[in-house]
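ok here's Ethanolamine utilization microcompartment protein EutL:
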Amino acid sequence: MEQQKLKAEILAIRMIPNADDSFCKSLQLRHHQKSLGMLTTTIDDIGYTALDEATKQADVEVVYARSFYGGANHSSGPLSGEFIGIIAGSSPDEVKSGIDAARNTIEFGASFESLNADGTHAFFAHVIPRTGSYLSKLAEIQQGDPLAYLIAPPLESVYGIDAALKAADVQLVKFFGPPSETNFGGGLLTGSESACRAAADAFRESVIRIAEDPLAY
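and the structure:
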């Protein structure tokens, strides 16, 4: 079964050069974090990956990141998608650099893989060779450690995670039990970069096999 890349679309971007003090307090920002950048995108996992990349390319921190219930097909408006993320930094220039890095990842880097022509059956088997501050904190690993970011529809995700763990010397550090907000599932696995890639390959093959023959057990 041949897969096609399924890219996310950025729907809206805005910056706040000097955020209101009460708003900063609500976001629990540190005293020097006065500038904010925010974006929405059509695929949440690519959004999380992109914001993590922002923390590697600029002196920024992810201060808010959420998936929307039901996914992009059930979004609250034309610019909502299924994800919103906010980064904070000490200056507008730093935040702009972070947004630029996130945008580059969304447009040219991470992508889902589609198993059908209309993109309704898709999965994410993405390897991050070196994590930034956001995903390393989420996964409770050292910043800079490799990570396999594996996401699929409910049954595929559970079956695929087990296959990934058996295929390589990796550890499951975060399990996203289905249903997530977007009705998918998956997990974050860590190990060496080569082990993470082997795990991602095993996850991919498992998802493909299920798609080819869903009722074979």
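+1. The beta strands are 4-6, 10-16, 35-41, 60-67, 83-89, 112-114, 122-128, 147-152, 171-176, 185-190.
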